[in-house]
Amino acid sequence: MAGLYIHIPFCASRCIYCGFYSTTNVGLQDKYVNSICQEMTIRPERPNISTIYFGGGTPSQLSYKNFVKLFDHIFRTYTVDTNAEITVECNPDDINEQTFNHLPVNRVSMGAQSFSDVRLRFLCRRHTATEVEQAVTHLRQQGINNISIDLMFGFPDETMTDWEQDLRRALKLDVEHISAYGLMYEEGTPLYKLWQANKVKEIDENLSLAMYDKLVRALTSAGYEHYEISNFAKLGFRSKHNSAYWHGIPYIGIGAAAHSYDQSTRSWNVSDIRRYIDSIEKGILPMEIERLDEETKYNDLVTTALRTREGINLDALAPRYKNYLLEAGKDYISRGLLVLEDNSLHLSMAGINISNTIMSDLMWV
């Protein structure tokens, strides 16, 4: 089985955090969807599909007609498992009483981000906190019983009390899955430029760590499983698609800037939408391919599997990499930052706080 990832790089508004731009060009959307269908046709892979994920930008900006076209083409092109997890990323304000009627979507991931309208305006998000709650109600009415929301913490001037209020409102929604991330100042985004101009200030690191600790304690106390550094799920509701990424299961990425992985190679399409469309219309796959050597596969494993609750299965490693990993990690193990049990290596709660440093030190060099 493999996963299918459909990249839809359209946003309803320019986001201060990610930097995506909006499109109101209906003709461009139609041409892009036609190109996605054509890419599926001309690609040689025909695996059985166990997960389908519409992500990147705001897929909920697609018209109903284009959703129908894409699903029709997916089910004609691939053999899709009858129990496949089919996820669409959405803005809360794009969801109404009929958004997914007669579509095979069974999981929705919403970018709630915050329940503070002030912080939502800071992110230039169109939706309000109330619309998040309304969206959950609409989805339940349409039979969507697997809902995930994204939260963000570490806003400039955000207090622990602010964060606790967000967590309470999130838990009140009783959704099946919650992802939470600290606000990042990534180079090239509008937020990074504001930070460079001293117009915003990063939150204190100790407060950010305390917010993460509060997140973990609040969600696990409410019955959520902390199964990946930033992800929490009720029993049976882990994200199957994202879990496949973390555990090295192959996936096909369709669309501009989409990435694919087949355990031997990693490939990615050109990111510019118009270049992507032009290439596909000529029958050319606009992709670059990287062949993965054993050292690269090991490093990929460190940066993906170590994020998960199960960690790295040592039995899956060749002896040279297993020995290297245990030698590189022995100091962290002795300090209780890495835990070695049941022939697996995983981060402790304290280790999660410095996970980037630990992963870097475990890399093959």
Automatic annotation (TrEMBL):
Q: Which GO terms describe its molecular function?
A: 4 iron, 4 sulfur cluster binding; coproporphyrinogen oxidase activity; metal ion binding
Q: What are the BP-aspect GO terms?
A: porphyrin-containing compound biosynthetic process
- Specify the domain of life of the species encoding this protein: Bacteria
**PROSITE patterns assigned:** RADICAL_SAM
Q: What is its main location?
A: cytoplasm
* UniProt entry keywords in alphabetical sequence: 4Fe-4S, Chaperone, Cytoplasm, Heme, Iron, Iron-sulfur, Metal-binding, S-adenosyl-L-methionine
Q: Where in the cell is it found?
A: Cytoplasm
Kindly indicate whether the keyword Cytoplasm belongs to this entry.
yes
Q: Which Pfam families match?
A: Radical_SAM (PF04055)
Question: What sequence ranges are listed for the domain Radical SAM core?
Answer: 1-225
**InterPro entries to which the protein is assigned, alphabetical:** Coproporphyrinogen-III_oxidase, Elp3/MiaA/NifB-like_rSAM, HemW-like, rSAM, rSAM_horseshoe, rSAM_sf
GO cellular component: a single term: cytoplasm
The family this protein is said to belong to? Belongs to the anaerobic coproporphyrinogen-III oxidase family. HemW subfamily.
The role this protein plays is: Probably acts as a heme chaperone, transferring heme to an unknown acceptor. Binds one molecule of heme per monomer, possibly covalently. Binds 1 [4Fe-4S] cluster. The cluster is coordinated with 3 cysteines and an exchangeable S-adenosyl-L-methionine.
Q: Which PANTHER family match?
A: COPROPORPHYRINIGEN III OXIDASE, RADICAL S-ADENOSYL METHIONINE DOMAIN-CONTAINING PROTEIN 1, MITOCHONDRIAL
Put simply, this protein is called Heme chaperone HemW
